[in-house]
From TrEMBL:
Keyword Transcription among UniProt keywords: no
Protein name as it appears in the record: Acetate--CoA ligase
Enzyme class of the recorded protein, top EC level: ligase
Organism: Desulfomicrobium apsheronum
EC number per UniProt: 6.2.1.1
């Protein structure tokens, strides 16, 4: 490790040496890769420079080379058709199926008997599947889905925990050309219903329940609640018997997973898909009240993932890859399921809570399976860090060679704790920036990069970004601006489901060639990028994107609420939590027991949105700051939060 102090971002110089974890404001740490790592890396610094230069000179040639490393039923006519930009069609004219690359092709290679999946339940039960076993399971389910009448283009909602059948369901859908739409198991019946109806799902796959922090979370009951009255589109509900719960099974509609696949054959044809045929829909929050169903397809998505696994995560045949992302999050799709399987590596999946039964669970899992690459989120690291170093010390973590982070900015002190106490100063930390919409990693260090804690480093070769002001003009180094992506990239979103008209306005407000990420960032004098957070009205609660308007709308559906505004406030563990400003309806405002009202509203939000929406506090006010056109001005509330005196009832110009 080398210490560079001082002037980098105009910060004061700090000369005296410190312990590695005692970061002082103004000091900048720089970490160089260990020599052995440089020798062994899939991409060494020279190769990185060459790749970057060649991708700049011939971007399409660069991505074409990446695509050539995968298997296709038919190759493309053109690598990219941008004649209708910002509509971009990657690998136009090609035919493929992501499952052919993730599973089928491994069966004829040495990977056939390699472990594809190591799964561990919260109670300690485990299951392991070789590529061949996983392939057979997926085929059985694919056949069963076909016998239920499902095929190309049909939508399947997955409301599932982190269990092997979730992965199987995703792959089986892809195999038959159906489109999966995973809904986070922490979302409410209402949120589930909204997504089921929006995508007109024919099938819902769920589990009776699952284990989380020593309790059983009942999922089937929530599905039943979601399907009451409406959701006529759903013909079948398949239920995995995970928690041995005594659930109601509707005779005509519900069927146990095991009963469904029991008689099925273990071989199944893989559907031939066009490049942009949809693979999945995943909802994410935006500035509007309604979540957007981001659509990804088969071809570009797999090419992007293939590159990041091979180059960023530096996959070797002996790796054990553990990404802790949930299946309801893009990280679970890309780096628990599709990416690792395309790379032919062994992926680890853990059902439960990181603190169960105590704060060493993750380190125990790393040690027992010999995890070599650990990919997690700052909110998880912060939580575990709070419990101290004695927990990682209980286990042998020496198999780890790469650590990675995603979902929100990682502060230097969290980075250093992860580096020192989990990686024992031997493992680079890959701070990967990307989004649901980008499909896979976009900005990230490589294992051989010289690292600065807190920076997401540079765009990967083939990806080009800039930091601009509101009008799209580049800002200088050190100045905060909006992050944009200046070239199309293969794993980019195809569409917003059911709202194609929103796609261009939301993501290309500055026109083609300027994808608007919605994040604030700076570039330092070394050209490294630092992400500061969202620029729009979207909170990042423990790595989950939750729209302020989404929560405000949920409050407004309660009879006690006349008006509501929600802002994000910093939180040590979750990064951000919500604070709500509520104007009560007159008859409720007259009530004395505010605690009762708070309890009632919290329950209401849990029901409407789900437990992911953490409301830290509520304040009851007489009025909210609005513009003359009636828009809530959240920055006034934020200023108030910071101690500035404001007049809440005043009309503010935006
Ligand atoms: C993969 C994922 C995307 C938003 C993104 C940004 C934040 C993600 C980050 C990061 C700082 C990182 N974000 N990675 N911020 N450093 N390494 O998280 O997708 O759920 O769509 O969220 O998350 O604000 O815009 P998604």
């Amino acid at each position: 490790m080398e210490r560079r102090t001082g002037m980098k971002r105009g910060l004061p110089r700090k000369e005296n040496a410190m312990k590695e974890t005692d970061m002082a404001y103004g000091e900048e740490l720089v970490f160089r890769p260990l020599p052995q790592l440089v020798i062994e890396a899939n991409v060494n610094p020279q190769e990185f420079a060459t790749a970057q230069a060649s991708a700049k000179a011939d971007n399409l040639g660069y991505w074409e080379d990446a695509a050539q490393e995968l298997d296709w039923f038919n190759k493309w006519d053109v690598v990219l058709d941008d004649s209708e930009a910002p509509r971009y069609q990657w690998f136009k004219g090609a035919q493929c199926n992501i499952v052919y690359n993730a599973l089928d092709r491994h069966i004829t290679t040495a990977n056939k008997n390699k472990l594809a999946l190591i799964w561990e339940g919260e109670a300690g039960d485990t299951k392991k599947y070789t590529y061949y076993e996983l392939y057979r399971e997926v085929n059985k389910l694919a056949n069963a889905m076909r016998s239920l009448g499902l095929g190309k283009g049909d939508r399947v909602v997955l409301y599932m925990p982190l269990i092997p059948q979730t992965m199987m369901a995703m792959l089986a859908c892809a195999k038959i050309g159906a489109v999966h739409c995973a809904v986070f198991a922490g979302f409410s019946a209402k949120a589930l219903r909204q997504r089921i109806t929006e995508v007109e799902a024919k099938l819902v796959v769920t589990a009776d329940g699952f284990y989380r922090n020593g309790r059983i979370v009942n999922l089937k009951a929530t599905v039943d609640e979601a399907l009451v009255g409406g959701c006529d589109c759903v013909e079948t509900v398949v239920v995995v018997n995970r928690a041995k719960l005594d659930v109601d099974m509707g005779e005509a509609r519900d069927i146990w997973y095991d009963a469904l696949v029991r008689q099925e054959r273990s071989d199944a044809a893989t559907e031939i898909m066009n490049s942009d045929d949809p693979l999945f829909i995943l909802h994410t929050s935006g500035t509007t009240g309604e979540p957007k169903g981001i659509v990804h397809g088969h071809a570009g998505y797999m090419v992007g993932l293939h590159r990041s696994l091979d180059w960023v995560f530096d996959i070797k045949p002996t790796d054990i890859f553990w990404c802790t992302g949930d299946m309801g999050w893009i990280t679970g799709h890309s780096y628990v399921v599709y990416g690792p399987l395309i790379a032919g590596t062994t992926t680890v999946m853990y059902e439960g809570h990181p603190l169960y039964p105590q704060a060493d669970r993750m380190w125990d899992i790393v040690a027992r399976y010999g995890v070599t690459i650990l990919y997690t989120a700052p909110t998880v690291i912060r939580m575990l860090m709070r419990y101290g170093n004695q927990y990682p010390r209980m286990h042998d973590l020496s198999t780890l060679r790469l650590l990675a982070s995603v979902g929100e900015p990682i502060s230097p002190d969290t980075w250093l704790w992860f580096y020192k106490f989990i990686g024992h100063s031997q493992c680079p930390i890959l701070d990967t920036w990307w989004q649901t919409e980008t499909g896979g990693c976009m900005i990230s260090p490589f294992p051989v990069s010289v690292l600065k804690p807190g920076s997401v480093h540079r765009p990967m070769p083939g990806i080009e970004v800039d930091i601009v002001d509101e009008d799209g003009n580049p800002v200088e180094a050190g100045v905060a601006g909006n992050l944009i992506v200046t070239r199309p990239w293969p794993s980019m979103l195809l569409d917003i489901f059911g709202k194609p008209e929103l796609r261009d306005a939301t993501y290309w407000p500055l026109g083609p060639g300027k994808y608007w990420a919605g994040d604030i960032a700076t570039r330092d004098e070394d050209g490294l990028i630092w992400i500061h957070g969202r620029s729009d009205d979207v909170m990042n609660i423990a790595g989950h994107r939750i729209g302020n308007v989404e929560l405000e709308n949920a409050f407004l559906t309660h009879k006690a609420v006349a008006d509501a505004a929600v802002i994000g406030i910093p939180d040590k563990i979750k990064g951000e939590v919500a604070k709500a400003y509520i104007v009560l309806q007159a008859e409720f405002a007259a009530l004395d027991d505010r605690n009762e009202i708070i309890r009632m509203l919290k329950t209401h939000i849990r029901k409407e949105v789900g437990p992911v929406a953490v409301i830290r506090s509520m304040e009851f006010v007489e009025a909210l700051p609005r513009t003359s056109s009636g828009k809530i001005v959240r920055r006034v509330l934020k200023a108030r939060e910071a101690g500035v005196q404001v007049d809440l009832g005043a009309v503010v110009e935006d």
